[in-house]
Amino acid sequence: MKKKVLLTLALTMVAAACLTGCGKSSAGKNGEVVVYNWGEYIDPDTLDQFEEETGIHVVYDEFETNEIMYPKVESGTSNYDVVCPSDYMIQKMIENDLLAEINFDNIPNVKNIGEQYFEQSKGFDPENKYSIPYCFGTVGILYNKTMVDEPIDSWDVLWDEKYADNILMQDSVRDAFMVALKRLGYSMNTTDEAQVKEAAQTLIDQKPLVQAYVIDQVRDKMIGNEAAIGVIYSGEAIYTQRENPDLEYVIPKEGTNVWIDSWVIPKNAQNKENAEKFIDFMCREDVALKNFEYITYSTPNTAAQANIEDEDIKNSKIAFPDFSEYNNLETFDYLGVDGDNLYNEYWKQVKSAD
Amino acid sequence: MKKVFSKLYIILIFIFLYAPIATLIVLSFNKSKTRAKWGGFTLKWYSELFDNQVIMDALYNTLLLAFLSAFIATIIGTMACVAISRMHRAWRTFFMGVTNIPMLNADIVTGISLMLLYLSLGMTFGFTTILLAHITFNIPYVILSVMPKMKQVNKSAYEAALDLGASQPYAFFKVIFPDLLPGIFTGFLMAFTMSLDDFIITHFTKGPGVDTLSTKIYTEVKKGIKPEMYALSTIIFVVVLLLLLFINKKPGKKDNA
Fold first, then answer.
1. How much is the average pLDDT of B89-108?
2. Do A243 and B218 touch (CB under 8 A)?
3. B209 and A77: CB-CB below 8 Å?
4. Domain residues of chain B, as ranges?
5. Which of A30, A122, B45, B64 has the fewest CB atoms nearer than 10 Å to its CB?
6. What predicted TM-score, i.e. pTM, was given to this entire model?
């Protein structure tokens, strides 16, 4: 009996060991590139295509938030060659000397990326030396036309008592404060305590009207007609409109946050040349188009924008707003430890208020 | 009256336990991608699941890790039990205490300290580091379930075997090992499950390109979890359910002393 048990165990062990051996695929003939990107933030086919065309093996890894990505890159547990953080995090990485300058000569396809996106990037990468935009979007108001019968164009509607218990707010410090600060006409990157305090007070005033502070559920709740108005990212707006045609997205007139996720190369990258090849590949118009169709987040690749088949989306002001039409669009800055603490302190007050 | 109440209570508990799983199973057949809308019945997520190489790789990694780490931890844990049982009383208490600490320790502490250790040793993060981490946190569970069996073992039987000319390993495998087997088996299963559903330690010790199911699902948070995952979770649930029914159907076959 026990001999049998031992034998089976030993055999499975050998089989498993063999499987691991076989499972490990070897590096490509032209080396490899280690990519660290957001989850579900690329069309997997493009990775295969890249491997086929260049012979470079892609090791692909994913993260959930900028805050989780940062320590992984900083501690050097893994030497990533290409990372895709958001605006304020890129600024933090530049300030802490974690990024390498990109050699733009190796990335000819960078010509496909629209000028206005590089202009907007200057907020976090002043000389456009370290980052190349990959995806971008705005934050705005998503509302249900059957439940709201007036045109919405201002953050004020989130403080309108008519919609009590029908409002969804973002459950993250900077996004929530962005709404309040913009409504008051302040910069969303302010570190002036008086302004932050005032914004916090308006958020507390708003609290009884809010149905819930949520992140992901805005999408599902709005599709399911569970709320009338929600603060949402533009990338999600296109998807929700597809599912529920009653929904409409607006960028409020007081201005909003333009976020940009860009490719960067960490200083400790082992395969910088391959990294640049990878970024160049991602900037190619057909690849960018493929990725846009997969992720539905707006692409800054103007060549790809022109080739989108769906006319509605191609000409959509939601997906591709002209930044020059607004004069109050901002991108999040890294506020430093003190700035973060200031916001977190007041956010705590907001969340714990009755 | 009292009976009605107790039945209601049981039903309530079952609803609490199984309502989330039932929701998940229903959603796995939902044609629409969003949970807010019922788009009709479909099996498409199941077929897409098996076509999705990334999820399949993650599943393969998860099972392989669970099996290997449980197996190795069982061997090490059992050997540790034999050694600990032979120690003097004071040392025994000391070692049992030491092995219990990792179990009570928060996962995040274990995860970060292992990461720091690997970093200081200059190891490359990947499958091996996760495997080592899983073996590490599995060993205490094996010791925990083998140790009680070890205490029941009759030492005289082992000594008698030696007196009758058995070599030490022979005596161990013929006399002590069979008595330990149920404990070893429980230990193995416990280690297997612990490894299967670990997220935090894996997260800190994993390298690029290696994902288990839990870390893979977590990365999908930003864009919303894909219905394929509902399908996979449903399959796992059904398999475990069938396994439990199968085991419970013929009890008493094995002498679970």
1. 90
2. no
3. no
4. 1-31, 52-249
5. A122
6. 0.80
